């Protein structure tokens, strides 16, 4: 799968710009703030229908404009695929594949597999569990539609149940039957999500270990474990046991929407006990494992976005990283960096074709 051409219109700091890409390595270089990350984010948009960096869709429209368009021409399985994501202020976002509008964004997820490595990944360590759940959901969803559907439905019912708990509190009332209907639906979808997350970690964790060893030469022991309320009991029982708490809090306090991934180094939380360098290696290993997992599951080589790559690695390690990806049957890579010369030195050593875009 190759992104041949990208055109953006009123996207963040760009008014109108077109890029024709190399099939292997593409580097965006230039000073701080010229829009290197924005180009990577536009490519991310084409795979996920949204920004990696800014969840508020309308803030991706260029200041003082009222719409944006991101257009990508891909070659996939010898077919040309035209993907267009557009948003007009006050309207719903539209995603088209070959001029046909998708009914649901979820139908597009996984069609153009992609992995991004960015300085913002540190949020995976520093933020609360939601960021780690989103990471896990992103990896599994790119190759499992049943999972994505179950997740969307589960989240919808959780919102409805929370709204009902609020309504009960506000009106000083309670109806066990209505809550039970939600509980049963949640139990059904959470069983699917829990099982698939468990299966995912069983396959993903050894890949992560292997990537971590490859980039650190086995210096320290790291682990990645899945933690869920459902380890104790099925959700139906848990919801019944926690109903008084939920009524008091006015939201659902147990379930797979509280799951977490535990990141440890030498059996201690990496957030508290990992050095900066150890945390960066952990994150890179996590992202390379994501790349490998998606490649194995989907059969497609994901596009790789390396944002501000020298933030995490020195020059020698960047070359090692590119080699690692190169070994994994080469996909297309997009790199952003402030220094044209060091980027070019690193990519030259991979002996693949490349293009440098000065922004
Ligand atoms: N909606 C928007 N409209 C106009 N400009 C925007 C919008 N959103 C972001 N920008 C601008 O985009 C620029 C940041 O772009 P980007 O993050 O891609 O820079 P960069 O080249 O990656 O920089 P760095 O090297 O510092 O990471 C900023 O100048 C910011 O003001």
TrEMBL record:
Gene Ontology terms: biological process: DNA replication; DNA synthesis involved in DNA repair; double-strand break repair; SOS response
**Is Nucleotide-binding among this UniProt entry's keywords?**
yes
Any idea which positions bind ATP? Answer: 30-37
Which of UniProt's keywords are assigned here? ATP-binding, Cytoplasm, DNA damage, DNA repair, DNA replication, DNA-binding, Nucleotide-binding, SOS response
Kindly list the GO CC terms recorded for this protein: cytoplasm
GO MF entries:
ATP binding; single-stranded DNA binding
Q: Where in the cell is it found?
A: Cytoplasm
Q: Which residues form the RecF/RecN/SMC N-terminal domain?
A: 3-348
Principal localisation: cytoplasm
Q: Name one Pfam family in it.
A: SMC_N
Record keywords: Nucleotide-binding included?
Answer: yes
Q: Give the protein's biological function.
A: The RecF protein is involved in DNA metabolism; it is required for DNA replication and normal SOS inducibility. RecF binds preferentially to single-stranded, linear DNA. It also seems to bind ATP.
**PANTHER family according to UniProt:** DNA REPLICATION AND REPAIR PROTEIN RECF
Q: Which family does it belong to?
A: Belongs to the RecF family.
Please report the name of this protein according to its UniProt entry.
DNA replication and repair protein RecF
Name the gene for this chain.
Answer: recF
